[in-house]
């Protein structure tokens, strides 16, 4: 039964889809999350915006980490298919997740594989300053605490994943040296744990597009620091952290986990997102 006026079902480009926060929408979301977690395997953090959440949110993995927003997210949500996008303003909107060994992928000697994945719609595809999707990265010189960051580069807007060895002050990474086109994109940075830049891949809409290293200095492995996980920003000033390099635009989902994702994994995730968010990526 279609109940258009109640908001339980909405019209999308491919027909009617159940809305977020309705019984049918909640069922579809649960099915989507279960299918996504099954593909991702060792997923340690999964965030999807939820309209009832204002100042905090809860990660959808078994870890149930708390995301604390800088201020209320009420009014930042828009429906996209059966999901939501949260639109961040690029100047203050962000979230923080407490530090945990779950989000560190190295022990100063060896790295382990990892991935970061996000469904995004940037406001500016070639931002003046770097815009951060998610990071574990505090770069102030009073006590640098840097592990990894996934972001669009300053000026060019290149999707980039970097991992840093705090002991040696060196980093490895890869980027796709083409800015995203306008609109929604599924982007992923995945790392084999090899300790070299060639172990990093960048997928845009399920296509492996990385074509350049982003590296400097000597790198052995990621260190386990006390940096928090920062959604939509990085940090500076370890003694009194200040957020910067904010994300401007929409987030539909963000996930972080252990293990490297393949082209086949990304294709399956793209199709899953197309169905849930009523997209055609």
UniProtKB/TrEMBL annotation:
Residue span of region Disordered: 1-22
Organism annotation: marine sediment metagenome
Full protein name: Uncharacterized protein
């Amino acid at each position: 039964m279609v109940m258009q006026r109640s908001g339980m079902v909405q019209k999308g480009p491919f027909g009617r889809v159940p809305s977020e926060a309705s019984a049918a929408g909640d069922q579809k979301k649960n099915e989507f999350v279960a299918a996504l977690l099954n593909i991702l395997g060792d997923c340690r953090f999964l965030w999807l915006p939820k309209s009832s959440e204002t100042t905090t949110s809860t990660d959808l993995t078994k870890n149930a980490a708390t995301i604390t927003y800088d201020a209320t997210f009420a009014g930042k949500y828009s429906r996209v298919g059966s999901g939501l996008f949260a639109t961040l303003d690029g100047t203050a909107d962000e979230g923080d997740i407490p530090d945990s060994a779950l989000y560190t992928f190295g022990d100063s000697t060896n790295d382990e594989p990892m991935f970061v994945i996000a469904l995004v719609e940037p406001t500016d595809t070639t931002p003046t300053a770097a815009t951060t999707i998610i990071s574990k990265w505090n770069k102030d010189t009073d006590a640098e605490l840097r592990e990894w960051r996934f972001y669009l580069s300053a000026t060019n807007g290149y999707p980039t994943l970097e991992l840093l060895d705090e002991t040696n002050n060196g980093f490895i990474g890869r980027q796709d040296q083409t800015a995203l086109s306008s609109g929604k994109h599924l982007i992923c940075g995945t790392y084999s744990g090899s300790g070299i830049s060639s172990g990093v891949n960048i997928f845009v809409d399920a296509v492996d597009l990385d074509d350049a290293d982003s590296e400097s200095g000597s790198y052995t492995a990621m260190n386990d620091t006390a940096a928090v996980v920062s959604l939509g920003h990085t940090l500076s000033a370890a003694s009194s952290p200040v957020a910067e390099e904010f994300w401007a635009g929409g987030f539909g989902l963000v996930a972080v986990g252990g293990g490297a994702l393949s082209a086949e994994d990304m294709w399956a995730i793209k199709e899953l997102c197309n169905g849930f968010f009523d997209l055609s990526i």
